[in-house]
């Protein structure tokens, strides 16, 4: 729905929210369900309504708990039966500058202001610590916007007695807390208010009449920002940015105007705009976003344009370049197949509204933002929050190189005499160990991003993963795989819960980029060894079908498990007798 794309259609979202909610629930979308506690220092009813819409649009079906008006701190610190039994998966604390109870005055000393700052920060930090201890789930906290007036004028931002200065210092302490607590996320209300326009955002009418901390029309922007964080935590980010070329990454048509005639770089004003946008797109690689080209062009012209000396983007920045005269929807499918990624994880940018509409109508689930004016391109991609960062793992930082190495493997496989010869020639080495702190972030990401080879589809936060590892009732293993082309990073995760002499599998997933290389065999061999060490006799595996994981429907059967139950929804349970298990011994050197 276009109303969810930047710029948001706030009026439609507010006025037609019931109809929009029904349409989303009636769609064929596959939802994950999450419980979200909203603790507010102001009225939160409309915020929750709008947050629900954005989450449903992201494939997350929420259930909410709302604190009573301004009871956020009491609920967090002392709890109540309803909140405690709710057991939230996410806690969102919605506060604003009016919830700060004391500010320096013009008669305050520097020491008094520092004490006020310390007390105010401790008030909130104590609450975050308590929430984390009680619920062991991610916490989202608004930073503090600023009042729409400045008693000290311009000095309000620099003088320790100014409210603007005090709020800025408080925010810095909040950011430090976030840096030290990986399951704590800041919702940047300060930026949202500045972007929206501070006077409009903080219209005092809405506070004094309705106790809303922001104007009604801005609530969808706030809700989208919170939803972006939540969908990122649960692996709903997009993964690939697919770009048109002519009049998208540069001005003009390279096939007609020649490389020297296209607009990019400092020589012409519009060229600078395209150059800035190209640099932004290039920078997306550094947060793990894959880049691809889908352009109606001759490939030689496309490559020549990308090699423009003033253009930041070069051919090597892209994991796939499709510059031809095929329909763009067909090219999109080809790129998805090459990368072995779901096409619904793609974003497509193109200046041509007809080409955008073709991709929309194809029903792939590709995000297609409206690219109207080149000066708005960067803002459009950025504000849509397609690639919201809640964590940056080592695998994120090297993802582009991993996919390039995978392309070399595919090419190498095509030239091998047989698939068995291909596997042997890769010189594969697996590291399979219990969960380790350095990989907790990546393991949590995999549980949320893996859709096809994912047997139980359990979605976990980093806190959930840490709790599993800390429990004596769980066996938790991760698997890394490297070969002569490079390191694939952490590609497989299994976690089983011990019940008497049985191990019940709660997680079993693997990245599809290492499919059919024996990694699944190596993981099972190691899992059986560890289970036997714990004197277990049986592994019970579960398969819960989704629209995306049909490929592993018969996985347990292929691995030697026996079917023991199946319900009307296709959920199955399987049993492996450890006493009769024969090791798979794949062509992988395993380091345990």
Q: Give average pLDDT, whole number.
A: 93
Q: What is the number of E strands?
A: 17
Q: Quick one: CATH class of the largest domain?
A: Alpha Beta
Strand content: 15-25%
The fourth-level CATH homologous superfamily of the largest domain is SGNH hydrolase
Helical stretch tally? 24
The total number of structural domains is 3
Q: Uncertain runs with pLDDT below 50, 5 residues or more?
A: none
If you compute it from the alpha carbons, what radius of gyration comes out, rounded to the nearest whole angstrom? 26 Å
CATH fold label of the largest domain: Rossmann fold
Strand order of the largest sheet: 15-16-14-13-12-11-10-17
Identify the overall geometry: globular
The level of helicity is 40-55%
Structural class by SSE content = alpha/beta
Largest sheet: 8 strands, mixed
Question: Explain this structure to me?
Answer:
With 592 residues, the protein is of the alpha/beta class. The protein folds into three domains: 2-233, Rossmann fold; 240-383, HAD superfamily/HAD-like (Rossmann fold), CATH 3.40.50; 418-591, 3-Layer(aba) Sandwich (Aminopeptidase). It has 24 helices and 17 strands. The strands form three sheets. The chain has an eight-stranded mixed β-sheet with strand order 15-16-14-13-12-11-10-17, with helices on both faces. The protein has a five-stranded parallel β-sheet with strand order 2-1-3-4-5, sandwiched between helices. Helix 6 (110-135) packs parallel to helix 7. The longest helix is centred in the N-terminal third of the chain and has 26 residues, at 110-135. It is globular and about 80 Å long. It starts with 9 loop residues before the first helix and ends with a strand.
